[in-house]
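From the pipeline queue, job 12 of 40. The input is one protein chain; the requested action is below.

Action: predict structure.
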Amino acid sequence: MLEKVITEDHKINSLLEQLITNCLYCKSAKDEKLIRKAFKMANEAHKGMRRKSGDPYIIHPLEVAIIVNDEIGLGVTSTVCAILHDVVEDTDLTIEDIENAFGEKTASIIDGLTKISGVFDKESNSLQAENFRKMLLTLSDDVRVIFIKLADRLHNMRTLGSLPRNKQIKIAGETIYLYAPLAHRLGLHAIKSELEDLSLKYRYPDVYNEIAEKIKLTEERRLHLINHFSLPIIDALETTGFSFNISGRPKSIYSIWQKMHQKKVTFEEIYDIFAIRIVFDSKEDIPEKTQCWNIYSIITDIYAPKPERIRDWVSTPKANGYEALHTTVMGSNGKWMEVQIRSRRMDAIAERGFAAHWKYKDKSSPESELDKWIKKIRETLETPSSDAMEFLDDFKLNLFSLEIMVFTPKGHIITLPKGSTALDFAYDIHTQIGNKAIGAKVNLRLVPLSHILTSGDQVEILSSDVQKPTLEWYQFATTVKAKTAIKNALKAETKNRTEVGKQILIEKLKEINLTPSSRILKKLGPAYDSTHKDELYSKIGSGIINLDGLKEILSKNTKNKWVRVWDLSVGRSQKKSGQKEEYDSRGTLILRETMDNEKSNYSLAKCCSPIPGDEVVAVRQENDMLLVHRTDCQTAVKIMSSQGNKLVAAKWTQHKVLSYLAKIQLNGWDRFGVYNLITNTITKELNISMRTINLHGHDGIFNGTIDLYVHNTSDLNNLILNLMKLKGVDSVHRVEVKE
């Protein structure tokens, strides 16, 4: 026991010394003293506390501080805040204690980092989503809060292995849905990539391990290719006097998986699994942009470029600050190779984002893209939706990674998400311009507000004082600013109609000597097809409801209706019997087949149609039933990120009795007899039933889908392998079943 304590103390001290030694901005003894003071306070406060992994708790804040310092590049204040980030939430220390010891600014950041606790209305709000919204409110004070929060999440993901499976799924889902896009938006490329990889590792461990193993197996061959490819470039760059580093690295496991998933290709079919990166020391007397194109010219003199694969983020940087020149060229071995060209400054921004050149004090600096983005987030936070889940969706929209750049009539550049409409452009200029918009001119051509913009468009908005936002606008608007403004305008209009309708009803009731009451409103609701009084008032105010027959409606006997409502209420409240949930020793729900009149304790989600063998997660519904989703289902990922308390880890038992609907997509060469070969293999050789078959040929090739019934993923994979062996079949893969 004593040896363990000595080992732990040694590890803690080692981490502290590593932090101080590698501290980028610890220029003085005063800075080192401040870090040691923060460590002492945190160490005493967390004394005796341990994480799920069994490590002393203090290791976590030290690791977070190292990430903040080494990997993000923040200063001493941020490092101190990282060390202290959990003390207010988990110990007896208060914000006042922090302020007395370290000052107001540190206390303010710690306050922003302290997790929100409390009880929320679980009918309409998600606790996770509400916490996330409140965390973002700290953007109003100091963006360092978000940087430290991302470092906290990264270390939690690195140590996720010690948590139970359902917690792993919840945290991994939340990470891929919100935190990885947030890291991307702030330009933290390295952290974003690691968060994506770790999320994939815990959501699909088998897929992650398979890709990682294939990357490892091809490492030696990859190094040989990189060296062979790089030698002529190195010689040419040295001859022209460039000082540079050249390296080759594989794409992240997540980006490889995403490409395999989206393009329906195998690992071996992805041609740009790794890229060459050239980072050069820029010459003072020549613009960096010019030097990037000079290097591009040298490379394309050696290797032929692929014209459609040039990405010029030097002339127009990404909205998250990323600058680089990308090209894809044909190597001497006949394989395409991606080359990234960056200066040292560009490389620092690419890896550390805005944290690499963030100025907290300098008010004279021009407004950066991050400043503009934060301003948009603040506008959304000032009028948040009452539904935290709705806010989460809106915020997710603002984490766009693909941007377009369009121009105002005066030539100013506006950055918008890809897929934005002319209406989004109008609202981006000003809320009132959006509210009054009637149309637009794009490149001098008249278009509707729903017109989708592309990069390089010049846009002029046409407006009218009598125009008002409509519900249809909300359907085709894509940016958070536009959706929020439309929502607020519609709410204000509805509120006005509601007030008008209420006054009309009071006047009509006065004519028959009655006053509004809950009894009268309960009678009028069903009569006018309204579920609540505000809807009734709104319909009256907008003229949808005519109150001429008011007296007759109120005089009707509604006894039978009340009886029906009561019966329904009683029926709903009765608890379903025979639903016994079974769990294994680790608390994972066992999904078993049920036969005849047995009642299952779960049902399968229609959105992703899981079958036995799929990686799945169960979500507890309001009626206490469990709905089973595939872990890659978008609905499930959203639930993981916002309502983790409803998740239940689940796994299948061996299913061989019932059959489940699955869909496969096929394509190949339309040779004589190929359809007969396919159907015979499915029905006669493998004894699998088909529900529908939809194959058609054109120009010598065929493609289509087949819906069939299988017992589990093993049967489905076996079927796919057998079909792939058939002459004329090029590819077969599983696709979503659309019921």
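Job complete. The first strand starts at residue 244 and ends at 250.
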